[in-house]
Each structure stands twice: as C-alpha cells, then as structure tokens.
Amino acid sequence: MTVSETVAESELSVETDLLAGLESYVTTAGPREERFDVETPFSGAVIGQLPACDPDDVEEAFVRADHAQTAWADRSVEERAAVFKRYHDLVIEHCEELLDLIQAESGKARRHAYEEVLDVAITARHYAYRAADYLESESREAAVPGLTETTVHHHPVGVVGIISPWNYPLSLAVSDAIPALLAGNSVVLKPAEQTSYTALKAVELLREAGLPRDAFQVVTGFGEPLGEPLVADADYVCFTGSGATGRIVAGQAGQHLTDCSLELGGKNPGIVCADADVDRAVEGLIRGCFTNAGQLCISLERLYVHEDVYDRFLERFVDAVESMRLGTDYSHDVDMGSLVSEQQLEKVTDHVEEAKAEGATVLTGGTARPDLGPYFYEPTVLTDVDESMALCTEETFGPVVGVYEWRDTDDVVEQANDSDYGLNASIWTDDVDRGKEMATRIETGTVNINESYAAAWVALDAPMGGVKDSGIGRRHGEHGLMKYTEPQTVAVQKRLAMDAPPGMPYWLYAKVMNGALKLQRRIPGMR
Ligand code: NAI
Ligand code: MG
Considering only 11-25, 213-227, 257-271, 438-452, which range has the smallest mean pLDDT? Predict the structure, then answer.
C-alpha cells in the first residue's frame, strides 16, 4: 500500500483546495449537524464532508425552487438561452479545475473526465440555440378547417427533480438540467453521495452564468431518506442509475401520477463483422469497453467477433489492452483510472471470479491492483463465457468484457438481442449499408456503426435512451427538452356552434353531417 499512501499525501492539498466554498450551494432548512465523508477513490482518503440532508431540506429546496420558477419562466426564452451560452464558455474556461474535481471524486482518468466537459458544453450550446424553436406555440389543424383556430402552447411543468449517479458526476448532474431550465422549469438535484462536490461546482458556474440563485437547488446525502420526498414534490423526475433504484423511483412517481424518465444501464453488445477494419475496431472497442473503467451505461460488455477475423482481432485487442497505462495521475497520459468504490470493486471481482470458477478463460487482466489504489481493477478480457455466468447477462459496470465468436448474421443478431437490457450497441463493418440494415434489427435505443458509443451520444439532436429494462423515456433531441413541458391546447370556435343549428331537428343534423363527412374524406385538402 505504500504507493497509494504516497499519492494520497502529495495530492490531498490539490483536492481540498478545490472544495473550498462549494458547500454553500447546498440547501438546508436549518443547521445540519449530520455530515457524510467524501473520499477520493485514488487513495481512499477522505477529502471533505458534506451535510447529510434530510426530508425537511428537500421540502425547503422545493419551496425555494417553486418560488424562483415563476420569475424564471417569465423571462423570454432568449434571455434564458443567454445564460446557457455563457455557461458554455464558463465550462471551457474552468475546464482544468473541473477535470481535477471530477478525477478527485470519481477516480477516473483525466481523458475520461474530459468527455464530461465536452458533453456539458455541447449540450448547453445545442439547447441554447434550439430551445426557442422547440418551445414556440404552434397552430394546429381543426376537424373542420376554418371553423376553429387551434393553438398548442408548451408550458414548463414546474420543478424538475433530478437524481444523478456517480459515474459521470458533471454530465449527469447538469446535462439533463439544462433543457429543463431552458423550458422554464426550476430544478432540485440530488447528486450521488460519492461525487456531490462536482455537482456543486457545476451549480457555482451556473450562478456565475446568470442563473437566478434559487432556480437550481442541491440537496446532498443519500437516496434513502431523500429520494421519496424528492419524487413526491417533483413535477417531473429524471433518474439515472441502477435498475433496482429506478424501479423504486418509478413506483413512487406512479403513486403521485408524476411523469419520469429512467436511464438504467445495459449489457451492451459490440459486433465485429468479417469485413471490419480490424485495427480501427480494436482502437474503438478499447474505448468502448474501458472508458471510465467500464463504469458507463453505454459501454460494451459483450463482443461478438466473426470467425474470419476472430483470431486476428483477439490477438490485437489483447495486445492493446496489455499496453494500457493505469494510474492516479492528474494528467492526460493515463488510459484508465480507478473504479469508484469498494462496492464496485466487489461486484467486478465477483463477476470475474464466478466466471473463472464456471470455466471462463481470462486472456488478460482478472485481478485487482491495490498497488495502484484501493479500487483499481485491471482491464480484463475473457472467453468461454456462457449464460450460466452473471458476467454474460448482468451489467458488470467495470473494465471487463466477454468475447464470443460468430458465423451467421441471424444468430449474432439473436445473441445481441438475448438480454433483458437494450441501451446501446456497436457494429463494425466496411459495408455501412449492411451495418445500417443490421442496426434496425438490434433491440437497443442507440446503435453506433464503426464507433462504440460516442457518435450516437453526441448526436445531440437525436434521442438517447433505452428499451426493455434499460429504462423509459429519452434524453437529448427535441424529446429531451419537451419531456419537461406540458402541452396545452387552446381552441377558438369561430363561426358555427358545435351543434345542430337552431331549429334543425337532430335526425336531419346527423344526415347532413354524415354527408359532410363522406365529402370531406374525398377531398384531399379537407382530410
Ligand atoms: P443507485 O441507483 O443506487 O444510485 C444512483 C442514484 O440514486 C444516487 O444518487 C443514489 O443516491 C440514488 N438513490 C439510491 N437509492 C435511492 C432511493 N431509494 N430513492 C431515490 N434515489 C436513490 O446505483 P449504485 O448503488 O450507486 O450502483 C449500483 C449499480 O447500478 C452499478 O453497479 C451499475 O451497475 C448501476 N449504475 C448504472 C448507472 C447508469 O449510468 N445507468 C449509474 C450508476 C450505477
Ligand atoms: Mg444503491
């Protein structure tokens, strides 16, 4: 353990400096005695303590957020958008500071932390320039053209509750909040207890960009007891995390008839076709499997490789894995960082140990690396994995991938779809048309061709989310903003009443109307 102790001592001052003042962005109803430790996964050392909020604090956060929402919604969309254009610039300006903080709290490599800065900046820009279009009131057709004038308005739902996980502490704390705020809502966020400082930093920058103080509330602490009152008070709930917790949240939202979106992870397949550019596939799939040490909802945990390229691919893939640099560095030179916690290390270890005991072959990795840090685990490649093993069917959420050989296209599509999950998939082929055709047969919310996950994620104009147990609803695109609105239809009756004219018997009215309906169906412009 000497290595990690040395690292802890030399880096602790960097970490504690970053945290100064951030606690002031936590909402509490009164002095909060109870606090919880935040540690850095790089060494296990405690780097700070935050208030363990209770249901009264959630209540207070909603009162403040609700109060702030009206004035915020009364601003024009352009004024609200200006805040997020500034936010875009501020996030870039504070990039290094954000990367330090994300790394300190999550233990990830700097290059993986940078994906979060990119994501937040792109999301802020995307929605800032499109929100006005999305939110504009529209006129709609009436049953009988000319008789009524119909307009649809898009009102904010009110206060949006967001519960976010630790794996992308910056992205997932603000990227779903940006469209919610642009739509005129206020937000109450409960970030993951492991990574709340990053969320607080994101809020500090939002304030600096001009977001009204109370429009974004943060309560820090644990899902139990904060989840239930948060869901009860919210007008919409956006949750990202485990399937087990997602089911609890959806159940509570159901009780309150509150709409929600859930993004719950996957067991995502990657398919390498016979005609794939093997070197390009190896490079892309290293990222696809090991970004953020595999703690990414859209990362790939099953690789299906065509028999014609299987040996060649596997040799190069294992070589590439073995040359990956692991470490606790605050520099861009590290290829993979730590897992976030003891809990994650245990889950990853259990999956690999069980698979080994059941006959799987470890080609590389397969062990923890306490010499680097308490939760480090080597990037791991296995073969001879089958359905009897959790590693084949359950989300590992770690740097572990099972590789399978395939021959027939129908078979590989069936295998890829043989999962309770349906979040992301990746196809590698030189024949893009064939890849696109295959993609439509895969039961996932996103499919990336000749990329692992990033192409579909950064296609911000397109919806992103999961089918089956991977969740409900979508983020990104028009849907990612409009889900935080209530459409309201206003119809003006212009001339005739919606009834028989005075003095006309109803039997005659019905006859006339039936004639009119028949005519209407025949005339193209009237349908
Ligand atoms: P989790 O789902 O328990 O935590 C996510 C968020 O939910 C955190 O903010 C947590 O405090 C909150 N939470 C916990 N219990 C709650 C409750 N009863 N009501 C409301 N909110 C609650 O996930 P956890 O335990 O951190 O990780 C377990 C597994 O979940 C991971 O190994 C991974 O497989 C999966 N996961 C998937 C993520 C994704 O991006 N889809 C993100 C994080 C975890
Ligand atoms: Mg949990």
Answer: 11-25
- The residue annotated as part of the active site, out of 53, 260, 289, 297, is 297
Same domain, 180 and 280: no
The CATH number that applies at residue 89 is 3.40.605.10
At residue 10, the pLDDT reads 44
Which residues form the domain of 404?
268-466
The reply to whether 199 and 244 lie within a common domain is yes
**Side-chain half-sphere CA neighbours of 372 within 13 A:** 21
Q: What is the mean pLDDT of residues 247-254?
A: 98
- Tens-place pLDDT, residues 162-181: 999 999 999 999 999 999 99
**Residue nearest atom 11 of ligand 1, based on CA coordinates:** 223
- Angle at the Cα of 40 from the Cα atoms of 39 and 45, rounded to 5 degrees: 65
pTM: 0.96
Ligand 1, atom 35: nearest CA belongs to which residue?
A: 242
Structure tokens at 376: 């480090």
- 234 Cβ inside 6 Å of ligand 1: no
Q: From the CA of 230, give the closest atom in ligand 1.
A: 20
Give the CA diameter of the chain.
97
**8 Å CB contact between 258 and 235:** yes
Tokens 């990336």 found at = 448
Instruction: Give the model confidence (pLDDT) of 79-100 as tens digits.
Output: 999 999 999 999 999 999 999 9
**242 C-alpha vs ligand 2 centroid, how far in Å?**
7
Q: Is residue 432 part of a domain?
A: yes
- Is 53 a catalytic site residue? no
Clarify whether 238 is annotated catalytic: no
